[in-house]
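User: Teach me something about this protein's shape.
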Amino acid sequence: MLVWLALLLMVLVWAAWLFGQVFTGKGRIFTYISVLLIATISSLTLYYFQGAHQSLKDTAELHQRLDGLSLKELASKADQKEITVQELLSELRLRTESDPHNFEKWRELGNIFLRFGEVGRAEQAFNRAVAAKPGAETRIEFARNFMEQGSAEAFENAERHINLVLMEEPKHEGALLMQGINHFKQQEYQAAIDYWQELLQYREPGSESYQIISGQIDQAKRQLKLAELNHISVVVDNVDSLLLTRYKKAFVLVRQEEGGPPIAVKSVDVAQLHQPQKLTPANVMLPGTSLWTAENTYIEVRLSQSGLAQPEPGDRFGRTSLKKILTPSETVHVEITQTVE
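Assistant: First, the predicted structure itself:
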């Protein structure tokens, strides 16, 4: 399409020149028509060999090669690197679009996307599945699938599906239970307690389900008390002077003096840097490492332009001085003043 537009502009320029009394009479018209024909034939040739035609041809050949495989077999081939993830996604989209009202296909497609970490595409597939089969149970099922995936984006999508159920049915017990679990998994213990306490109102006191939910609330309360002490608060002192809109993510890290992978990593939205960020043992990345026994460490806050955990040129960062040991419940201050080269 871009090639066609470029050639069309070239033709228009030629036309302006030709009709600007450079040529006269039949010669002018003949030259204009010749240029138009050459431009059209050239654009069609480029389209055929390099443009959308080639892309469609490749897609058709891929579909013919994979046509007899089930969705699970396709996912297995991608796992074994027999086909690329992009080839898998292309084939999945082709199959589902050919049967747009098939709930089972959209559901399985969403689960495959989650398996390969494609949370955004999974959300699109699940939304198509909900359109094919609306209902609270459908949304709760997909919320559970997102929670099992476990990323921040997946938890957010899970919350959205459950909230849509609660908007229609504020007393839906399954939605209240799942929303509590969703917040508990994100260590948002007070929110989990609130949802579970509301759920208790609809259970018979002394019943088995009442006791199970009460036990979950007690566990969340214990975790809440532990979280009040079992963390480090990180404050970015110069956050108001930073142009945060340039960055997609912020990362709070605990690094060792001798280098190597970080001990702990927490990904946060840049807008949240106006608030103290809590690092807990749950953020530890290295197996067998304790946040409170690691020696000679410093805390770093990095602003990422791409949203990736790997530092890239242009990212901004700041770090504390070297600390012999980290102390639970302490507050540390960081100024982001350096740039990744």
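Now, about its shape. Residues 2-50 form one domain. The longest helix spans residues 25-50. If you'd like, I can walk through any region in more detail.
User: That's plenty for now, thanks!
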